[in-house]
Amino acid sequence: MENSDAISLSAVLLAATGSLVADIQSGVVALGFADIRPTHGFVFTRLAPSGATVTEIAEHLGVTRQAASQIADELERKGYVERRPHPDDARARLVVLTDKGWRCARAAEASAVEAVRPWVEILGEERLLTLRDELARLAPGGPIRPNW
Q: What are the GO BP annotations of this UniProt entry (predicted)?
């Protein structure tokens, strides 16, 4: 692959990612969750389905434990998460989604469906699912995190 092709591929993938994040965020806001930022959505992906410690959130986001703790504090103040005793570690606390957090996560899922609808119209569902599968081969297991 030539340099210009590699650069244009990188640019297109980054543009698609940015567009997807913005469209999901807009949908979440439209569905009544105006106090959520895209970073919070990346936290939610780590918390679903069974929660995570602040240390695990920090690792997932690629930030310090202090920054992850501040995000968890903010989400707790807003009612999206709560801290519970960790079932396997008496010293740790588990951050889990509340009912409000789960409603927001479902709003993000619905927004993702709407965000990719134009892609389905352009490429067709079969080609888009093939693209998803090929991209998953290139980046197996993520993590799904913001590009700081």
A: response to stress
Cα(29)–Cα(48) distance, integer angstroms? 20
What is the rounded CA–CA span in Å between residue 147 and residue 51?
22
Give Cα separations from 17 to 22, 42, 68, 88, 92 (angstroms).
9, 13, 23, 36, 34
For 36-55, write each residue's pLDDT tens digit.
Answer: 999 999 899 888 888 999 99
Domain assignment present for 108: yes
Single pTM value for the model: 0.85
Q: How far is CA 13 from CA 60, 116, 144, in A?
A: 21, 14, 14
Decide if 144 is inside a domain: no
Residues counted in the chain? 148
